[in-house]
Fold each of these.
Amino acid sequence: MVNLINGRELSEKIVGKIALEVKNYDKKPGLTVIIVGEDPASKIYVNKKKKTAEKTGFNSEIIELPDNVSQQELEKYIDELNNNSAVDAILVQLPLPEHINTYEILEKIKPEKDVDGFHPVNVGRLVIGLDPYAVSCTPFGVIKLLEEYNIEIEGKNAVIIGRSNIVGKPMASLLLNKNATVTVCHSRTKNLAEVCSRADILISAVGRPKFVKAEWVKQGATVIDVGTNRTEEGKLVGDVDFEEVSKKAAYITPVPGGVGPMTIAMLLANTLELFKLHNK
Ligand code: GUN
């Protein structure tokens, strides 16, 4: 029988704990989110982040900028936030429009305010096993789920499908730091099914419905589905053929209610850590 990994439950527990802690402080942690353009999915995510942050007792602002904002203007906003002592955490929602150099934007954010852990200093610290100021929220949330369900990481074969800077790469570093044997697969990987079938922990962050098939999954594996895809009917589904894979996996995350809610919980956890760093 498969065990469902309930991300909604754990995220509520984490956010509840953060809300209690925040009540003890006479200042509120401050999170500012910058969103560029009109992408409806990004707008929904960003509003959800603000709403949850405020419910948890944080100050949260959204800076909405037009699609044609220049690199220079966007960097000016970041400079102002870097110098604003009421702002503990800065998040620039990705993806940015094509005319913007994303790397330069992320590098402009002070590492001590980089709530996504995307600044090269934080990425580098993660890779060498030095505590970063923050770790990318989604892979950090996956680690919290594995820990909550006592799923052993050390010595296990972990296979990640997807090599993005937001999920795949930081996920690999986190698992490696916890002594897993890590394989990162991508669009050029040969024999993907065979590589996946060796996984004790299989993590998919691809963005294609029913991409991960039951035949790829080892009996008793843990399957973590980071995919958030909309079907033509508007239903939210992951990357994993949930029904079939559930027959083989020992643990699986549903979509929705698995990894998704953990991303916001870890955003608040990261914001709180940065707030404490600034108020030591
Ligand atoms: N777009 C999709 N996921 C993320 C994330 O975790 N952080 C940011 N900044 N943008 C994203």
Amino acid sequence: MAIKQFKTESKRLLDMMANSIYTNTDIFLRELISNASDALDKRHILSLTDSNIKEDDPLIRIDIDKANRTITISDNGIGMDRKELEDNLGTIARSGSYEFKKDLSAKDEADIIGQFGVGFYSAFMVSDNVEVLSRKVNEENAARWTSDMDGYEISSAKKDDYGTVITLHIRKNTKEKKYDKYLDKNEIRSLVKKYSDFIRYPIRMSIDSYDYKEDGKSEKVTKDEIVNSMIPIWKKNKKDISADDYDNYYMQEYYDFAKPLKTIHYKVEGNTSYTALLYIPSQRPFNYYTSDYKLGLKLYSRGVFIKDEAKEIVSDYFRFIRGVVDSDDLSLNISREILQQDYQMNALKKSVDKKIKTALENMLEKERENYEKFFDCFGSQLKYGCYDGFGVNKDVLIDLLMFKSTYEDKYVTLKEYVSRMKEDQKEIYYASGESLETIKKLPQLEKLLDRQYEVLYFTDSVDEFLTSVIREFDGKMFKSILKGDLDLDSKEEKEQLEKKNEENKDLLEQIKESLKDKVSEVRLSSRLKSYPVCLVSDDNLSLDMEKILKQMNQEGVKANRILEINPDHELFAKLKQLHDNNGDIGEYAGLLYSQALLMAGLPLEDPEDYVKKITGLMLKAM
Ligand code: ADP
Ligand code: MG
């Protein structure tokens, strides 16, 4: 009997596979089980149209023989005759998407294997000798194909029933790789669970367990078990799935103790047909902001597990979504793992993103309380998504954003804000700060509240930065109440203020002088009501942004500090008096500035000096 040579290409790919230690060798089992499942499908389909072809109870079996170092995968599917063994296993089918390159460097080769699903040949990653015994349905004779990778032989054989038995002689352990694990029943069972749990046909294995007797002794018993669960929850009919089923699946799969906030289960038919089961968690995973957090969705193709953490099928700004996408179309690719470049991936991503967005919009509209819970956990994510890439995705996300506001300390969307703006209100006001409490105490807030203007609380560090990419909503600009000129006054009021500033020029200059570089300007303003002073910045960088940038080690950037004084406050009248009497303004200038710093939630620059001065004043007063 002659040993036949593999076609050159096949041989080369085989060598690459066998010698690569970078590849995920576990997937050989997935490939062989998938082939068995395909063979059962084929027998089933033929039995529908050809009355001569009968179906047995379809079955896939895995047997392990530790002593002889073999693992056997059997099926009672369609089987192969001699010619088919030769045709199907003698050459590696060339695929349009894959052009074999003869001049690959060793490194590229390793990469290709890592990405390349190679079906039957992946058996050689774990085995140096493969035997395929097969008997085609309704054929009398069986045939045996064997290969040690150098070439292959085909001979006639006997087999009792139809189908295929594939026996792999498992490689010996090497320094880099422990092949012995493929002879461990529990290991194999968990690989079946991981990769092939939703194969439609039962996969049987004999599993060892121990029976404990009354006298305390145990006896090893071997039981035949079906190790796959066959129908994934997302493939079931919606009406057959209870809310508990959905929740339990989620909690098991993602190790979450809490039920999901929202479950999204849907099916899309069309160019890219797929089923998805998506979840919004009800709490932020403890490792959400660390690199441990698993991004992306689980990707299946016709029930066969392709990969975990598929980032390419959902946008990063929805990274809080967990779940599964199972597509019918992807398996058409010969390369199971070169998915990133696939246009199908992009189509999937578009579709998945859209569904998530719609689900969130519906929640916002119809389940406000739930949506607010969601926003508490993941709202920042949406804001960062808006900000990222100079706002490329802002149009997708902007309607999903919410901020708390002075209206009733509750969340408000921008749409809601604009819809209840006062008639004479021109801009969307916001105030940034550490917390609601600090913002509520801002001296700058009073006047706006008097006018019943709603002010958004910007407490997330990303909030104010967002305004640089959003800029406006519904034609209304964003305006910080802590920056620049609020422009609330009438023309006459403005002129009056101008005049007052002019009249008190000397006093203001003296204050500025004694504060030196601490402030860029000292001016009277109409911003304040009951407080004597406040600190604002010019239209560029705000004090809050400066603080955040500092936390991000951007020390150099400084906001322009402007000290504003309330001309209607009693304290100003006193200052004027003192100035008119040629008193020393300098001592009080420092105190005014310190006050303003404290109210802005900023640290005092010289606490010791401040305490000394206050103590001095107290002593004088008491
Ligand atoms: P693919 O499954 O993508 O076609 P494989 O390399 O996995 O590529 O398998 C090559 C071919 O060998 C299959 O298309 C099928 O015709 C045949 N084959 C493999 N395993 C079996 C099996 N268990 N029963 C019947 N035919 C099989
Ligand atoms: Mg295959």
